[in-house]
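Hey,
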Amino acid sequence: MRRLWLLAPLTAIAVTVAPPAASAAPGSLDPSFGRGGIVITNGFGTPSDAILDRNKDILVTVNSNNGGPNGVLRYLPNGALDSTFGRGGFAALPSGNLIATASGIAVQSDGNIVVSSSAITTDTSQVGVAVARLTSTGSPDTSFGDGGIAFGDVPGGPGAGAVVEDQNGNILVGGSFLTAGYRSSTTTGVVVRFTKNGQPDTTFGSGGAVSSTALGGIQTLGVDPSGDVFVLPAAAEISATGAIIPTAAAPQITASSQGGPNAFLSNGQSLRTGSVFVFRGNTEVQVRRFQATGALDSSFTSNPFHYLTGVTARDGSNAIAIEPNGDVVVGGSHWLGTAVLGLARLTPGGSLDPTFGSQGVLTTTVQGDESVGTLLAQGNNIVAVGFTEDNSTSTAGVALARYLG
C-alpha cells in the first residue's frame, strides 16, 4: 500500500488584537500570549482537537477546507507557531490509499504524536479506524504501521476520535457507528487497540477490537493502572484483554483522551457538560458529575447558566477541562445572531466561581462566528482552542485564546 506525505502550502497567518484586559483578574485575556491574548491561524483548516506536550507547547489537529492535507499545528507557549515543527509549524499527516480526517490527538510518553480518525480505503473496500504517528519534530514515523499510519478494518465504519496511550505503550482508539432500524436506531461503541509498532493488537477483544451496544457513543477513553479501559458517557469498563465488565468501578484513571464534553477525574468519577433546553431560542449550559458506575453524584451542585448573566441566548458547551486545583472550566459558544466564545469556571463543588470573569462566566469575540472546541489547563492559565470564521470573507481557521487562571 503506497503512502504519500504531502506538505501544506505556506500561507499567511492572521493574528487579531484583542482589547487589553482591564486587570489581571482571573478570566482576563493574557497579554503575553499572541497579541492581546488571541491568535488566529488561517490557511490550514479548522480544528478538531488539541493537547499540550511535555514542553507546554499547544498541538492542534486541523482538517483542510481547501483541498490541502490534514495535519497538526504546533504553537509555542507564547502562541507563536513553532518553526521547528514540520514545515513552518504545520506537519501534514501521512496518507496513501486511505481517506481519513484528523480527529483526536495524544502525545506518547516518548514524545511521538498520534492522531486518530475514522478511515476508508480509496477503493471503498474497507472501512475502519486509523492512527497516524508523527515524531516530535513533525515527520511521519515510518517505523509505525505502514509508512506512518496504522489501519484497523472494523465492520460498521465507526466514526472515531478519542485516542489514548496505555501504560504499555499501546494505542487505544474509541468511536461508534449507528445502525438504523425500522422505528429506532442503535448505537454501537467500538474500541480498537494498536500495538506500539502500529499493528492491531490481536490479544485484545476480537482481532484487536471490542464492539458492543453497551459502550454507546464513545466520546472519551480512560485507562487505569491495570490496563482496563473506561468509556464515557456510557460509564462502561473493558478489561485489558477486551472483556466488557458489567459494572464499571475505576479505582484510578492514569490517562485519558483529550477534548470533548466529558472528562475523567483521577478517582474514577467523571464530569459531563452540555446544553439544557429552556424554551425556543434559549438553551443554558449544565455540568454534572457522575460516579464511576455512571450514577449521578448529587453532591455536585451545579445549576444551569448562561455565559452572559441575564442574557437569553442559545448557549452550548462542547469542552471541559480540570485545573490543577480541581476547578472545572467549560467552554462552547454564546449564540445570539452570531456566535462568540463562551467560558465558565466552577469550583470543585459545582458552583460558579465568582472570581472568574463576571461572576464565573465570560464571552470573547474573535471574528464574528466562533466556538470553543477544546480547553487546555496550561499551568494556572486556560487555553481555549476552537473554530473561528470571518463573516465578511467566509475565511475559517483556528482560534486560540488564553485566559489568566
